[in-house]
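Archive transcription. Copying these from loose printouts into the bound notebook so they stop getting lost. Printout 1 of 2:
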Amino acid sequence: MVVPDAAPVVVVVVPPAPVEPVVVAPPVEPGVDLAMQARMLHRVGACAGDTPVPAHLTAALVDKYCARMQDGIRKYRERWLDRAMPFLADVVPDGLPTVVVYPFGGGDLMTALATYPDLTEITTLSLEPAGDVRAIERIDAKRLAPILSKNADLIRRLFAVSHSKTTNLSITTKAELPGELVFTLVALEVHGFEPVSLRYFKIEPDGALNYLEADALAAIDARVAKLPDGRRKAAQLASFGNVEIRFRKVSDATAPLRTFRHISGDLSDGALKKDRRVLAHLESKGRVVAMTKAASFLLWWDTFSLMRKYLLGHMEWMISDATGIPNHHAKKAGFEQITWGRFEGPFLAGAGDGAPMRRVWQTNPLTPLPFRYGYPDSKGHSHMMVTRRAAVTK
C-alpha cells in the first residue's frame, strides 16, 4: 500500500499589532503654582533677564531702576562675593549634608548660596512673612516710581552690609512689593539662578507641608477684602508667611531643581512650646548643615533654648558670626569652635559684654577675615565662627 506524501504544513506568522507607547503623565504638584508671577517679580524687582516688562507697568521706569540695580549687583560681586566665595570654599569641608537650615535668616538667601553653593534645599526662618507674589500684578503704574525707588534703597543697604538688618526687614513688610520675596529673587539673580515654581504652604502638626490650593487663596482674598483699608495690607502679608520656591541655573532645563523655603514664625521657647509644628518639620529633615548671622544674639538667650537644642541635635556643621551658639552649649554637645577675625564684644546694646564668646576668639589663633560676615563686633571688627564636630575637618 502506497502512502501519499503528507501535505506540507504552512506556518503563517502574524506580526503582533503595534503597541501604542504608554504615556505616563508627570505627577500633579500640590498647591497653586504661581510661577508666572514669580517670573514677573524676578524681572521687575530683581531685574533678571531681558524679557519685556509687563504691559501694566512703565518700561522706562523699570529700565531706569534696573540700570541702578545692575550696577549695585556688579559692585556687590566685586566687593564681597568675589572675595568671600573663594575664602568660604576653603572653609566649608567636603561631604557635608546639602540641606541647610538658617534660623533668623529672613531675606538672606544671597549669603547662603555664597556659603553653600552646592545646597539642594534651604530653609530660612524669621518673624517676617514672605508676602504675596501676586502684588506685582496689582501695582498701580502711577505709584511705580516711588515703589521701585524704595525697593532699590533697601537692596542697596543689603548689598552694603551683606545681611538683612531687622529694621530693613520691617520696612519691607510694609512695602507694596513683597520685600522678602524680592530679596530672595535678587539672590537668585546674583548667583545665576531662576525661579521655576512658587507655592505657599502651611505646616501640619506632624511637620508635613500642606500647600495652598485655589480655594484657600480665594478664601484669604475674601477675608482680607472685608477688612478696613488700614488693616488689609498687614492681613494680606501675614496670610502668606511660608513660601517654597524651586529654582535652577538660568537657561538650563537639564539642571537639577533646588528648593528654597521660608518659614515665618516666632522661634522663642514660648511660641515653640505652644506650637511645635516648625520643630517637627525641621526634625523631619534629618542631618543638616546650619548657618546664622546678624541674629540679634538670640541663640545666647535661654528663651531660645529649643532652637539651640534643635541645631545641636541635628546639625553636622555650622557657620556664623558671634550670634551663633555659645561655646559652653556647643562643647557639651560634642562640638568645637574655630574662629576668624576679631571679636571683642557685641555691638548691640542689651546683649551683655559677651565675655564667654570673647574667650572663644582669644583661645583660637588670630586668623584674618578679609570680608564682613554678619555683624561687626563692638570695635567694628569683622569676625566669623565655625561650630563643628571634632571629626569634621577640611
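Printout 2 of 2:
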Amino acid sequence: MNVSVIGIGRIGLPLAATIASRGHTVFGCDIDAPLVDMVNRGENPIPDEAGLGAVLGLVVAAGNLRATTDTVAAVSQSEAVLFAVAVDVEESGRADLRNLYAACESVARGMKPGTLCIFDTTLPVGTTRNDLAPRLEAGGLKLGTDFSVAFSPERLLMGRIIEDLTKYPKVVGGVDANGGDRAAAFYREVFGGEVLQLASAETAELSKLSEGAYRDLNIALANELAQVADVHGVDISEVIKAANSQPYCHLHVPGTGVGGHCIPVYPRFLMQGEGPSSLSALGRAVNDAMPGYAVQRVEQLVGDLTGKRVLILGLTFRPDVAVTPHTNAVDLLREFTARGAVVEGHDALLSEAGVRELGFEPAREPLSGYDVAVVHAKHRSYNSLNWKALAPLLVDARNALDRATVEAAGVRYLGIGRPVSPD
C-alpha cells in the first residue's frame, strides 16, 4: 500500500517510519525542505525519540520511506493519507487550524478516487466533519462516494512514540458511512494491534479531548491539594501515596503547571463554546497560576528577590525530551523577573541559541554561586550535579528529586506542597 503522511515532525516521522517498516511505501510530506533532505539521507532529526534512528535508517535505505515537499504528487500516488500536522491555540485560546487547512488544500489537489484520509491531529469536536472534510471536497471529489474521511487521534508520549503506536487501542471514528470501517481496517493492517471503532468522528474527537481534560483537571486537583498541604505543613507526597493506595483514586503529581503540545492545549478546545466547559476553564486557571505560586513561596523564604541570582535548570516541558512548547520554565522566568530577580537558564538538551529563544540568558559553566536554583525538568544528566555548589535553596518544580539527597548535600529543599527544609 502507498501511504502519504502529511507533516513529518515529532509525531508524523515516527508514524511514517513505523508504517514503512511494515513493508508499505510511505511518502513523508512536509514544507520544511531541510528536514525533507535530512530524512532522505537517513539522518534522524529527532535523536531523543527512542528507536527512531534505527528504523529510519533501515526504511530509507530500503526505499520504503521517501520524504518530499511535493504533497500533491505524493498524494496522487497514495491510497491512504494521514494528517499529522500540529495544531496549537491562538492568543484568543481557540484552535489555530491554519496549517491544517493549508495541508487539506494541498491534499485535495492530489487526491484520486478511492483515497482514505485520516486525521491524527487532536481537534475540537466537529472539526473533521465541518471544517476539514469540506476542504478536501473542494478538490472536486465527493465525500462518501469518491473518498472517505475518519478521525483517529494519536495516543502517544514523545520519546516513546514507536512503542506507543501499538501499545494502546487505536481509536477511530468515521465521517462518511464507510470512513470508520476503512480506517479500522487500515490500522489493523499497518499496525496489527487492537482497534476501537467508535460511532462517529465526533465521538473519537471527544474521546481524545476527554483524555487531555482528565489529566489537566487531575493535575489541577493535585496542585490545589498541594496548596492546602502548605497551609497545614504536611507533605503532599505522603497524602497522594495514601490516597492512591486504594483503587478508586489516581491523583497525579503537583508541580509548577502543565506544559507541552497536549495537556495545556486540549482543554481549550473544549472551551471554544461548543459545549459546557466551566470545569476545564477552572483547571486551566489553577494550573496556569502555579508558577506564580511557586515563586511567591520562594519570596516568602528568602525575602525581596530584587537582584537575587536565580538559575532554572531544565527548560523543556518534561525530562529528556527536547520539546519546549508551552513550557512552564518560561512562566517561572516571567514570575521571577517581575520580582526583580536576575534569572539564567540551562538545559542539557538545548543549544545556547535554543536557551535564548526561550527568553533566558544562558547560564555559564560551571553551574554555581546562585541564590536560588529551580529544577524544572529533571534530565538524567542532572543526576550528577553538585547541589551544594548550585545554591543554598533548591526548588523542586516537579517534585522529582530525592529530597534526602539534596538535604544531605547541605542544601535547603523546597517542593510543591512539601515543607521546606529547616534553615
